[in-house]
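Possible regression after last week's pipeline update?

I re-ran a chain I had predicted before the update to compare outputs. Posting the input and the new output here so someone can diff against the archived version. Not blocking, just want to make sure nothing changed silently.
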Amino acid sequence: MTMLRIRSRDGLERVSVDGPHITVSQLKTLIQDQLQIPIHNQTLSTNRNLLLAKTPADFLGFTDMADPNLRISSLNLAHGSMLFLAYEGERTIRGGPAVTPAGSFGRKMTVEDLIARQMRVGRQEKSHCDSVSFDRDCANAFQHYVNESLAFAVKRGGFMYGNVSEEGQVEVNFIYEPPQQGMEDNLILMRDSEEEKRVDAIALGLGMRRVGFIFNQTVTQDKKEYTLSNVEVLLAAQLHAESELKEWVTAVVKLEINEDGAADVHFEAFQMSDMCVRLFKEGWFETEIGSEDDPKLSKLKKEVVVGVKDVKEVDNDFFLVLVKILDHQGSLSCTFPIENRNIQTTMRALKTHMERARSLPFVKRISDFHLLLFVAQFLDVSSDVPALAECVRLQSHVPEGYELLIDSMANTC
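New output (post-update):
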């Protein structure tokens, strides 16, 4: 007898089969018998992204198990293998939770118990963000660094800045990389409040704001059965909650193997669900995560209701809402050395940049967020920094004082 693990919106369940020689059609019949999901409602796949699909039309994109006569052995499935299941409609799960007596007939329920019973975690079907569009240059600068310099061996992150339209469309035009310590399975942000004030002053002058956070997953995470790990969910929920922006986007860069066996850099974007952000704000998440904890499950301090089960561990995918990715070409360049990387930015870098672009108008030469951040160290953050950034936004004449200052800085080396 072979056991297959089936992960659906209801959590992880198991199905017993005679062996890997059975067909997809026979497997669906067993799922109907054992899990009470009608065959015609089932969509099966070996791709975990199926759990992020929102509509039956989205299900149609997962075709690896669409052939009913395909033997599951051809998919390299064996005892203990994981499959992903999406289905339409509702179901009754056998062996649901037992009823616990309360009130005068049993244990007295506290106010906390009543609140906990109202905390139902389910999939959020619609995001507050209609789409996220990345400036090609800033997205390429980030992925090129984690790919070529870090080889996806450690994590790297950055705050995304841009605009949000009335329709909920987010546009990312630059990425600020704060001081940080990246490791194989964790990312520690060592945030510099003074530097972030300069970043926000530049954003103000450019007519932009902080709209999300981007980070990469490492190559060691490639074969694990989750979209985001519990550590990543905690960081994403923390930053989303801190932002107070309902359209806040979390973007992930990962290395994936394509059909030809070559590695491709892949971007994904999500929003943390409203319930996830609420649970974080109210302190429900266990923040101490041990090496023995399952990375695909987030641990909570109290039970919540998922489906018909009371649980203290929730599949991370329940907290994710997929966001469509677009791209565009913004007005900022991204050729100046990026802050807080392995090599410290110097005045010589400023001189090289200004000389290389000497044929352009002065405002074009400084139309680079990372250059503005470097120069901002020597300007008044409340007046000069946003004023200079506004010249870049409007592509207007730069006052002579700023021009002389930047030229003199470039010529000090």
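Follow-up from reviewer: compared with the archived run. The CA atoms of residues 138 and 174 lie 6 Å apart. Marking as no regression found.
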